[in-house]
Amino acid sequence: MSHAVIARLSAPLVWRRPKNMARKLAEFGATEAGSALDMLRASELCPDPRLRRIFLRHALDEARHARLFRHAADQLDPRARHELSSRAQSHQRLRDLYAELGAEAFLAFVLRAEQSGEGHFRALVNELGRSEPELATLFLAVAKDEQFHVAYSAHWLTRLAGPRRPARIRAERLSSLWLAWRRAGRQIGERVSWVLGVLLYFAVLPPFALMLRRLESDDPGWKPARSLPSSIEEARRQF
Amino acid sequence: MKVLGVSAYFHDAAAALVEGSEILAAAQEERFSRTKHDAELPLRSIRFCLEQSGLEARDLDAVVFYEKPLRKFERILVSHLRGLPRGAGQFTRAIGTWLGDRLWIRDEIAKAVGCPKDRVLFSEHHLSHAASAFFSSPFDSAAIVTVDGVGETATTSIFRGETNSSGSKIELLSELHYPHSIGLLYSALTAYLGFEVNEGEYKVMGLAAYGKPRFLDALASTCRVGSNAELEVDRRYYSWSRSATQSFTSRLEALLGPARTPGTPLVLPAAPGSAAERYADIAASLQAFTELYLLSLLEEAKCRTGESKLALAGGVALNAVANRRLIEEGPFQSLFVQPAAGDAGGALGAAQWVSHVLDGAPRAGGLKSALLGRAEDPAHVARYLDDCHIPHRRFDDRGALFREVARSLASGQVGAMSRGRFEWGPRALGARSILADPRGPSTRDRVNRKIKLREPFRPFAPAVLAEDASRWFEPVPGREDLTTAFMCSVAPATLEAQRELPAVVHVDGTARLQTVTKEGSADLYALLEAFRDETGIGVLLNTSLNLKDEPIAATVADAYSVFARSELDFLVVEDALIERSTA
User: Fold this and answer.
1) Is the pLDDT score of B457 beyond 90?
2) pTM of the prediction?
C-alpha cells in the first residue's frame, strides 16, 4: 500500500484529535531517537573516514528530528511522551545494527528505512498541508533531510556493494518483511497472553486470594532476624 | 576469586567485576545502551567488565545475580492475589515478563556470560545493597541500613557488618516487608507530582526546597510510623500492584488535591495560591516526612546494632538532602554512602558479598574513586575527531590543557570534560561532566535552559577541592561525613559561598557538593587547582554531560553529540579541545 493511501486512510483516526496526534508525534520522536543512536554508534564503528563523517551528520539530523517531534507532541499533549506504548519505547533503543549487519547490509537497511520515511512524511505533507500547516512544514523539513539520507545511502551502497547491490536490497526487503511478520506475531502473542492472563486472574485466582486473605496478614512490624546464605551451595538457590 | 555481579530486570541494570578486594570494573548498562535506567540483562556492561580486566568468561569463578528471583516472583503473585480484583492489567504484564525470561534467569545469565550454569549464584536484594555499602566503606564494623522500594519482600533492612582477623560477615537483624515501604511511598508521590518514577525523585528533592511542609500531617495520616520505626502504609491511599507508574488512589487526590499532569509547566518560585505552590508544598512535606522517618529508622538501627558507624544503601540513600540531616541529627558518628546506592549498586554488592563473605577474601580499605567505567583510547578519539572533520586542538601537556580550560571557564564559558574512565553511579564526578564558573548569577539559568534543556528550578552541584571545602560549605561538627566524595549529601553554603557562588547554591541555601581529592579524580582535581590559580576559587559548577532524559555520555561520539546539540562553548575529550567558535 502506498504512503499516500496510508496517510489518507489514517488521517481521520490519527490527525484529527490532538491527543492522537501527540501520541503519533511522540512515536515519531521515539523512532528518530533510536535511529540517532544507531547512526551515532555506526559513526564510531565504521572504519571509513568519509562514511563515519556522514553517519555522524545523519545521527545529528535524526536527533534534531526527535527533538522537533517531541516538542510538537508536548505542545499538543504533554502526557503523550510519558505514555508511549512498549512497542514505541522499543524503537528508541540502540540496536547496534552496524555491528550486527556490517557496512553493506547496514547501508541497505538505512536506504530502505529512509526511503520509507521520506515517502511517509511527504504523504503527510500532502494530507495535512491545509488542516495542519505547522505540522506539514515540520514533516517537509524532515522529508528533505530524509531525501539526503536516501541519496547518500544509495550512493555508498553502490560504491561498497558494487554488483552485490541488488542482492543486498532484496535481502533487506526480505529481512524487513520477516521482521514485520515477527512483530505481528509478537503483537498477536501479546494480545493472546493478555486475554489468558485476564482469564487466569478472574477465573482461577479468586479462591486462592480468599484463602490467602484468611491465612496471612501483611503485618507492618519488624520481621525477626533470619540467617542469610552462608555457602556457595546456598547461594546457588534462586529462592 | 574472580566474581562478576549482575543486576537487571527492574531498573538500572549493571555489572561489576571483583577480584579479591579489588573492583576491576563496574558500569551501568544505560551508559552503553543509551537507554536511561535500562533494565535489560546488561550484556554490554558484562562484555566491558571482561574486556577491561583482560579476562574471559571461563576465567570467572562465579557470576552472581543480585537477588533471589523465585522469592520475588512469589511476592509478586501474592501481592496480586491480595489486590484482586484491582490490578488485572499489571498482573498480565508481570506474568508475561516473568514467564518470558525472568524465571529462566540462570540460563539467561549463563548464556549471556558464556559460563557453566553451576557458576551462577544468587544473592538477596537487600543483602547486595548492604554488602555494596559495607565493603565499599572504610569501616571494620558498622550498622548497615538499606532502604528502597522493594526487593524480594523486604523494603527496609537493618544489618550489622564486621571484618576481623577471621574474615567478614554480614548479619541481618531485622527487616520490614512489602507493602510497607518509604521508597514506594516516595515514588508514588513522585508520580503524583507529575514526574517519572525512578527518575523524577531528584526533581522532587529540588522542588521541595521551594515549598513549606504544610501537608506533613496529611501525609502522616496515609502512612503510620510506629515508635520503633515500624511503617504502615494505608492502602486506601496507595496501591502498589495496580500500576507501576501511578500507584496512588483517588483518595490521595481527595486528600492532597488533583495530581499534576506530567509535562505541564511548573513556574517557580510559585505564586501564592497557585497549583505550583501546592505541588512544591507537597514535595516539601514528602521530603520532611522521609527525613523524619529515616531519623527514627536510624535510632532503631543504633539501638539494635550498638554501632557508631553507619553504611547506608538502597535507592532512598541517594536522597542527598535527607543524608545531610541524618549526619547532623542522627545517632551515628560516621556515615558512608556508596556512589551507586540504587539497584545498579546491587551488582557490585553481590560480587563483594561472594568475594568477602563466601570466599573469605581480605578487605583493603574502602572505595576511593568511583571512576570504574570504560575509558576511551586517546588514539581512537583523535582518529574519530580527524575523520569527522571536527576542528580541535590537541594538548600533549595536561597542565596546559587544564590552564586553557580554566581560563575559558573563568571568562564565563560553559564547557564539558570527557576524560578517563567514566563514573560508577548516577552522578557525574568529573569524568563526564559539564563544568562552569559558579560565580556567575546567570550561569545556572543558562545551563538549565540552553545547555541541559531541563526544568529551570533544578539546582546544580559544586565540585570543590577537598582542602577548600570548609571555606565554602559548612561541615558537620564532630561527625565524619563520608558522603561528599561521591556527591551523596548536601551542605549549607557559608555566607561567603552564598555571596560568591550563586550558581551552585540552591534556593534553600544548600548545595550538593562533591569534595574532590587527587585520589578520587586526578583530572578534576588538577582542573580545580588550575581554576583556583586563575580565580582564587577552587570550586566549579559540575553537572552531568547529557541532555534532558538521556544517560550520561560514555564515548567520544556521545560527548560530541551533546556538544553539537547544545550551546556548550567547548568540549574536552581526552587531550583534545573542541571549541564552539571553530567547530
Assistant:
1) no
2) 0.93
Which chain B residues are Cβ-neighbours of A200 within 8 angstroms? 95
Instruction: Tell me which of B79, B358, B377, B548 to substitute to probe the interface with A (most A C-beta atoms closer than 10 Å).
Output: B358
Angle between the A205-215 and B69-83 helix axes, to the nearest 10 degrees? 100
Structural domains counted in chain A: 1
Which residues of chain A make contact with B96, given a CB cutoff of 8 A?
190, 193-194, 197
- Asked if the Cβ–Cβ distance from B69 to A238 is below 8 Å, we say yes
Whether B263 sits inside 8 A of A81 (CB atoms) is: yes
User: Given this chain, do its domains B135-340 and B378-579 carry the same CATH topology?
Assistant: no
Domain of residue A55 covers: 3-164
ipTM of the complex: 0.90
Domain borders along chain B are: 1-66+68-122+343-367, 135-340, 378-579
What local confidence, expressed as pLDDT, does residue A198 receive?
87
Q: Are B16 and B46 in contact (CB under 8 A)?
A: no
Q: Name the minimum distance, in Å, from the CA of A196 to any CA of chain B.
A: 8
Regarding the domain delimited by B135-340, which CATH topology (the fold level of the hierarchy) does it fall under? Nucleotidyltransferase; domain 5 (3.30.420)
CATH architecture of the domain covering B378-579 = Alpha-Beta Complex (3.90)
Give a yes or no: residue A76 inside a domain.
yes
CATH code, residues B1-66+68-122+343-367 = 3.30.420.40
Q: How are beta strands B393-394 and B14-19 bridged, if at all?
A: unpaired
In chain B, residues with a C-beta closer than 8 Å to the C-beta of A67 are 565
Beta sheet of B480-482, edge-to-edge order: B167-177, B154-164, B141-147, B309-313, B334-337, B480-482
pLDDT tens across B284-307, in order? 999 999 999 999 999 999 999 999
Q: Is B176 strand, coil or helix?
A: strand
CATH code for the domain in which residue A114 is found: 1.20.1260
CA pseudo-torsion sign B569, B573, B574, B575: negative
Each residue's pLDDT tens digit, B400-438: 999 999 999 999 999 999 999 999 999 999 999 999 999
By Cβ distance, the residue of A44, A216, A228 closest to B172 is A228
Q: What is the DSSP letter of B257?
A: -
How do residues A62-74 score in pLDDT, each as one tens digit?
999 999 999 999 9
